[in-house]
Write a structure and sequence with these properties.
single chain, 321 residues, alpha/beta, Rossmann fold, 6-stranded mixed beta sheet, 14 helices, 43% helix, 21% strand, binds adenosine-5'-triphosphate
């Protein structure tokens, strides 16, 4: 049970769209279609302030699209949402970040060719009130640049990337890239940090450090919303879990409770309704979606048992033929 389980996060009956005691973000009737495909169809959802909320769901559930909409990287067909009481729908991404809501974005090819420090500078938002007159007065923006560099160095130190500041971001390991993405997001002093699969591609050596950093954001008063497939991570650090399937919110609750929910189990297994769970291959495919650690455990079990190993090899032979 999480420490925050002791606090009541919601008001009324728990379920999809439940009201929160202190929401930082409230979204209503948000839809996004691609051709005939409805990627997002969220009736109502509230994100609790100063909590860590996990957004989970099978592949293609609409999680990333919903993130993109909320942060102004994509436009909805319909819908409204407020952040800290201010209307945010239709506000472009760079302005969303200035208001205190920021998402990590993956290290793209072009960003990989910049140095670690250059990546950090990209994360700094322009100061409020900056205008053409300020731009014409170098002594003003030089101070700003100095302040940004100092802040970047402080953050890089915290994330143990300071010795890499002049290296190409491309030279970082998967885990270090995730740390850089998070450090870059913090350059704009956000109140709400949205992380898209923070654990993807991170080796076990850096897992603990990443988890610690995410918990640290909450300790510093921030709200965290993250998309993740790694159920171990969700159970470990989330205060609240929201489940999406086929564009809709299908379940919400405390992690300990929501993971037992039939709708959640169905949402994951739904993606594999054509999988034969009587086969080892089928079980591995489902486990992959639920928890990558589970797959590792299953694989270890199989390789330790010659009979199972032979069974899996036979199944794989059959599918290859
Ligand atoms: N730019 C796009 N053009 C067309 N279809 C898209 C686009 N972006 C997303 N989709 C579709 O919208 C649906 C939701 O995709 P989305 O990536 O948001 O799901 P997700 O829950 O983030 O999945 P994953 O866990 O695999 O990242 C999918 O059917 C996807 O194919």
């Amino acid at each position: 049970m999480n420490v925050n389980d002791a606090k009541q996060i919601y008001i009324g009956d728990v379920g999809p769209g439940v009201k929160k005691r202190d929401p930082i973000l409230i979204a209503d009737s948000v839809t996004r279609t691609f051709g005939g495909n409805t990627a997002v169809n969220v009736e109502h959802v509230e994100i609790p302030r100063n909590m860590i909320t996990a957004l989970i769901g099978p592949n293609g559930a609409g999680k990333t699209t919903f993130f993109n909409l909320l942060t102004g990287f994509d436009k909805p067909n319909s819908g409204n949402w407020t952040y800290d009481g201010q209307k945010l729908a239709g506000v472009p991404a760079f302005k969303v970040a200035r208001r205190g809501m920021v998402r990590t974005f993956q290290l793209t090819k072009s960003l990989a060719l910049l140095s670690v420090m250059e990546n950090m500078r990209l994360g700094a938002t322009k100061q409020k009130g900056e205008n053409i007159f300020r731009a014409m007065l170098p002594f003003l923006w030089r101070d700003q640049e100095k302040a940004n560099t100092a802040k970047a160095m402080e953050l890089l130190g915290r994330f143990k990337l300071d010795t890499k500041k002049d290296d190409y971001a491309a030279s970082l390991s998967g885990g270090q890239r995730k740390l850089l993405e998070m450090a870059r997001a913090l350059m704009s002093d956000p109140d709400l940090v949205m992380l898209d699969e923070p654990m993807a591609g991170v080796n076990p050596a850096l897992t603990q450090s990443l988890l610690g950093h995410i918990l640290g954001l909450k300790d510093q008063g921030m709200t965290v919303l993250f998309v993740e497939h790694d159920m171990h991570m969700v159970q470990t650090i989330a205060d609240w879990v929201i489940v999406m399937a086929e564009g809709k919110i299908v379940a919400e609750g405390y992690p300990s409770v929501v993971m037992q929910d039939q709708a959640v189990i169905d949402a994951y297994l739904g993606a594999h309704h054509d999988v034969d769970l009587g086969t080892l291959t089928g079980q591995l495919a489902v486990a992959e979606d639920i928890d990558p650690h589970l797959v590792e455990e299953l694989r270890e079990e199989v390789s330790a048992d010659p009979e199972l190993a032979e069974e899996l090899a036979e199944e794989q032979n059959r599918t290859e033929q």
